[in-house]
Amino acid sequence: MPATPALRRAFAVLAVLPLLALAACGYGSQAKHDDTAKAVAGAAKVDGLDSARIGYFGNLTHGTALVGNRKGFFQKALGGTEAAYAVFNAGPSAIEALNSDSLDIAFIGPSPAVNGYTKADGKNLRIVGGSASGGVKLVVDPDKVRSVADVEGKRIATPQLGNTQDVSFLNWAAEQGWKVDPQSGKGDVTVVRSDNKVTPDAFRSGSVDGAWVPEPTASKLVAEGGKVLLDEASLWPDGQFVITNIVVRQEFLKDHPKAVEAVLKASVETNAWINAHPDEAKTAANEQLETDSGKALPAEVLDPAWESIRFTDDPLAATLAVQAEHAVEAGLLEQPDLTGIYDLAPLNRVLRAAGEAAVDDAGLGAR
To answer: What pTM, to 2 d.p., does this model score?
Structure first.
């Protein structure tokens, strides 16, 4: 169903925010193209395509893409079709690339996916798979905050107004009985919107007392002397909530379904390999991070950050709906209509072929 005018206005406000991808998936707005992948010589092209353009972010929460690129899972599945990678630094730029037909498939967070889908009245993208869960923590200065009660009156950083972590913290604060104005961040707790790249410096200087942030920023704060007061996974059933999805342009899904299934097959195989070889996978992800950004993560950050992320084929659709509801309750947007945001039929075909159980779209699937 098309979004209401009020809903479009609400998302128009949120559209200027980098949302989850800026917070959890790097910084800036430019895509870096990886020209290392090459089509398999002599192999047939999938759907006759010369290339499938795959976007992801240079962050551990996009470990499926990092490892799948590094170990060649995507290229193997695509055969004679080149896996053409683009490394993005922010959610809006990836959504723009999808909308402008310069990207076909992207690994992306829930807020940019919801934002992009709703702004386009449900006509531009579909979530076709899951990738990762978890990896978000409340890290505090142990000299100032020793318990949950001590958070009241303190300055807590979140990555951006209206991003997924910002909404999660506002929702959690409300559950503690604290009142916070969602726009200004002022109230019983002061919410300081701070880019992840500068939050460690703010924490070190004492200008914030803690931060509700994704990995690896959380582990960077711990390396600076911070203490994990709360892992967001503890607030969710079975400790799972979506942090990274796989989205595709609807036109690409319609015209090249075999290519989409090939990418999903590679994603499923990559996640299986990651979960069977966690140490090797962690190394592969860090190597790809270094290739993409020129800088690898040190062990004291990499190890705990990787440990807190769970790689899963399930998009955890019910948790995306809950995250959207939290944004509504926080007063940051009107109730969105997410009907049709998922098309999990291709993924479920891949899962059944692999002998795995199908996953559910929580009633939000395309009909």
So the answer is: 0.83
